[in-house]
Specification:
Strand content: 25-35%
Number of helices: 7
Shape: elongated
Helix content: under 10%
Structural class: mainly beta
Distance between the termini: 97 Å
Largest sheet: 7 strands, mixed
């Protein structure tokens, strides 16, 4: 991309213009290049001095087979240069030019900046447009450097047959589609681009994505003494001004493309160009070359022939949070807060030293105490017009600044100057050195009785504006954009001081509104003080604010009606956010349970899912003092049938009752212990298991006479019913976890052992599941339950834990967590009910190893049962 003489840059030089026009009007061969190979890549002047462009390889508008040559992506900017005085020329040299995202402000060659109001990005090349060198490299060479190295999008299909990898593109970037010849870029063709070039998103991409599509004004060729583009730009974002100036209705979109879910393997974006008209699918327009032909499907990369429109396809993926800059364009500019102050414009006239229709002189009157000098680059909004301050002014006198130089931020000149008179807003970015009241940097709706922040309505919303789109996830009502009761005097944010509310971003993501859920609490006749606090917000690329806004205090209107309300907001920034209170075993944590804090993000996470086993054997303290029963018992594995209920308590597993990591446990398996580890193979055709919480909790501590202290604390036997032992809680009813029809095969090969050496055999719960079959579970120690139990005992902790010989918990602590009859589900035993139905094939000779809690009494009951056998007359009785 070299030009012959530096004096030809961007001006109507007859020699260069003659060269371009002669080449374009020549017959050429009709092949790629079409006689223009001598000037391809050069910067030439458009006819009638309407700007300059770079010449693309083309076929002089005579192609018979239009090809999609390549796709590239980058950042869309307007390019400016310096005038003869070394100042920024107010007229852009190039509009809508695609540059490499790595071109950034460097202090010597480039200055990349974005208008905080219109979001139009401009690249100022720090060289004189006339070619006079002011440093290493000319204006043209630096522009060429900015255009170089655009990332390509490799041709891929979106139908799932292409394994990838798929090219990456920044979510808020712009795609350039370069074609083999000049295009029909008439006004009618420009209005049809949303129909002729389709952008789809999703998996597979099939959701229309409506965005700004335009012909590239900076690349093409001159055919028949007129410039025609060879490229199409697909800009994935739409600013407010772009939406207002678009030839078709568009929605403001500052984010751009939806984020992808993967990094390489699947596309979530595709660009499709129909090659055929198809009335059935509503395709009545085609993208065409200047010669009139549509895009070719021959040797043109992936083509979808399954559709009647036979579309050329290019699929790729948008960025996501795993990519650099959160998947957005490289952004080294920190966002700023923007104040919006009411003004009036008077005495407006064209600036005789500027461009007619674009440059004006006006008197600006500030309508509140929010007033300051107008800096170059600040913005003025009047009606639908956006103007930029072209020259820094002096401070206002009596609220008025005269002769302010303003420049219209439009593509077309303003012909009706009367539309600029009247009320408007002056917007500028936050300046920590400014003496304006802090309340000027936020806005209240409705407007306060006294600007900027006095006599605020109890119904008010608070609006904060930024210089660029912000990450909505970073602007939250409890972490970053908050309202606090009592003003900014307190040094610590308390849970009780945070006003409960919501935040919502405008479509541009430059403006966020805080809406309290209830009217602000207020005592009538009082000027209650509140504060706006902004901290930790970031832009889309993750950059924090360039300068932090101090807390903004405001006071309510004393005349507003009284509002009595309050709230508590946990932000999960610490374990104790409310006033310290000894609420649970000396622990002051605000929240308890199976949660983990992420203080950095201000969130709590659930306990991760994991599978583990807990043995209830004689290695645990409570069971270690029980007396082994060498003969064992046959119940419930009886050939004559048996129904048995038995319990496991938290203490039997060696757990502390207040250890909440052992709450809400899904029981997925149960085991029994055979005597001596000897197991005979057996089979019960019908065997059922039911689980629930026990209404009773046996406590086997003894008194000074070696008798049970709590004999009635255990399970109930006859004449009570089996069901009397079940805690009836609607949240946690008894559950059949193993249907009787599934039976039970006792297989010696399943024998296991605990770390302490105890032998274990599995009950049939969740054994030998088919592939894909779900586990059947029961939630033990469920914290959602509301019923209580454990009557006739000490409560929790158990008496056996606090007394001799164990003294697991301090003496006298029995029942200190939950008293008798007041033990909730987390403190109650697991009640296991086994129903073994009579079987002619079963043997029933596998004794279960058990221990006796007390050798002086059978009470309290740890199990209750009814098992088949022989009666007094030696008759067989089945159960």
């Amino acid at each position: 991309m070299k030009i012959e003489a530096k004096t030809t840059v961007l001006r109507a030089i007859p020699l260069l213009l003659s060269l371009a026009c002669a080449a374009c009007s020549g017959g050429g061969s009709g092949g790629r290049g079409g006689g223009l190979s001598g000037v391809v890549g050069q910067l030439v002047q458009k006819p009638q001095s309407s700007g300059s462009f770079f010449v693309d390889e083309n076929q002089a508008g005579k192609t018979t087979r239009l090809q999609l040559v390549e796709l590239q992506w980058g950042r869309l900017v307007d390019v400016y240069g310096l005038d003869a005085n070394g100042d920024v020329d107010p007229t852009p040299v190039f509009r809508d030019m695609l540059i490499n995202e790595n071109i950034q402000t460097d202090g010597s060659n480039y200055r990349l900046e974005s208008n905080p109001i219109t979001l139009q990005t401009r690249l100022v090349v720090l060289r004189r447009v006339d070619g006079t060198n002011t440093g290493t490299g000319t204006f043209q060479s630096l522009v060429e450097q900015a255009l170089a190295g655009l990332p390509p999008i490799v041709p891929r299909n979106d139908d799932g047959t292409d394994p990838g990898p798929f090219s990456f593109m920044a979510r808020n970037g712009c795609v350039s589609l370069r074609f083999s010849d000049v295009l029909d870029d008439s006004d009618a063709a420009a209005a049809d681009l949303l129909q002729t070039v389709k952008v789809l998103t999703g998996y597979r991409p099939n959701v229309p994505f409506k965005t700004r599509i335009l012909f590239d004004p900076n690349h093409g060729a001159i055919v028949k003494n007129a410039f025609h583009s060879t490229r199409i730009l697909v800009d994935m974002t739409v600013s407010e001004t772009e939406a207002a100036q678009a030839p078709v209705p568009l929605v403001v979109n500052s984010v751009g493309l939806p984020a992808s879910l993967t990094t390489t393997t699947s596309p979530n974006v595709s660009i499709r160009i129909p090659s055929k008209l198809d009335a059935a699918s509503g395709q009545f327009r085609l993208l065409r070359a200047l010669s009139g032909v549509g895009i070719s499907t021959v040797n043109n990369g992936p083509v979808d022939f399954s559709k009647g429109t036979e579309e050329v396809v290019r699929a790729f993926r948008a960025g996501n949070v795993e990519d650099s800059n959160n998947g957005f364009l490289l952004d080294l500019n920190a966002p700023e807060i923007v104040g919006s102050w009411p003004i009036t414009l008077d005495n407006i006239a064209g600036d005789p030293a500027g461009n007619p229709g674009f440059d004006f002189l006006a008197d600006v009157t500030f309508e509140s105490v929010c007033q300051d000098l107008l800096r170059q680059g600040d913005s003025v909004i009047v009606g639908s017009q956006f103007l930029e301050v072209a020259e820094t002014t002096s401070l206002p006198t009596g609220g008025v600044v005269q002769g302010v130089r303003l420049r219209a931020l439009t593509s077309n000149p303003i012909t009706n100057i009367s539309g600029l008179f009247g009320s408007g807003f002056f917007q500028r970015t936050f300046d920590a050195q400014s003496t304006v009241p802090t309340g000027c940097w936020v806005t209240f709706a409705p407007q306060p009785g006294v600007l900027p922040a006095t006599q605020v309505s109890t119904q008010a919303q608070v609006v904060v504006r930024f210089s660029e789109p912000m990450d909505p996830a970073s602007v939250t009502p409890f972490q970053s954009f908050m309202l606090l009761r009592g003003g900014s005097g307190g040094s610590v944010i308390k849970a009780e001081s945070v006003v409960i509310g919501t935040t919502a971003g405008a479509p541009s993501l430059k403006e966020f509104t805080y809406t309290p859920v209830l009217p602000l609490a207020h005592s009538q006749g009082s000027s209650d003080v509140y504060s706006v606090l902004l901290q930790g917000v970031t832009d889309l690329a993750g950059n924090p604010l360039a300068a932090s806004l101090p807390p903004v205090d405001f006071s309510l209107d004393p005349g507003d009606p009284e509002e009595r309300n309050a709230g508590v907001a946990f932000r999960f920034s610490s374990l104790d956010e409310v006033e310290p209170t000894d609420i649970f075993q000396g622990v002051n944590d605000d929240l308890r349970g199976q949660i983990f804090y992420d203080f950095g993000r201000g969130v709590i996470k659930p306990r991760p899912v994991e599978f583990t086993s807990y043995p209830a054997d004689r290695s645990n303290p409570v069971l270690s003092i029980m007396i082994p029963f060498p003969r064992g018992i046959q119940t419930p594995l009886s050939a004559l049938g048996s129904r048995m209920m038995t319990v496991w308590r938290y203490a039997d597993f060696g757990w502390n009752a207040s250890d909440e990591t052992k709450y809400n446990l899904d029981v997925v398996g149960l085991y029994w212990s055979p005597i001596g580890g000897r197991v005979l193979r057996d089979f019960f055709e019908r065997f059922e298991i039911r689980l629930s919480h026990s209404k009773f909790q046996p406590d086997e501590d003894i008194d000074s006479f070696k008798l049970p202290k709590w004999p009635n604390s255990g399970l109930r036997g006859a004449p009570s019913l089996f069901t009397d032992n079940i805690l009836t809680d609607p949240v946690s009813p008894q559950k059949v976890v193993h249907e009787k029809s599934l039976g039970y095969v006792v297989d010696p090969a399943d024998l296991e052992s605990t770390p302490s050496g105890a032998f274990l055999m599995p009950y049939p719960l969740n054994r030998n599941l088919a592939p894909g079959q779900k586990l059947t579970t029961f939630l033990w120690r469920d914290t959602a339950g509301t019923r209580t139990g454990a009557a006739s005992g000490a409560g929790v902790p158990l008496d056996i834990e606090s007394g001799a010989p164990l003294s697991i918990v301090p003496g006298g602590a029995q029942g200190s967590l939950w008293g008798s009859s007041k033990v909730p589900l987390p403190g109650l035993p697991l009640l296991m009910e086994f129903r073994c139905f009579p079987s002619d094939s079963a043997i029933g000779l596998n004794p279960l190893d058990i221990s006796l809690a007390i050798n002086s009494s059978v009470l309290p009951n740890f199990r209750t049962y009814s098992t088949g056998g022989l009666d007094t007359k030696q008759r067989v009785v089945k159960v």
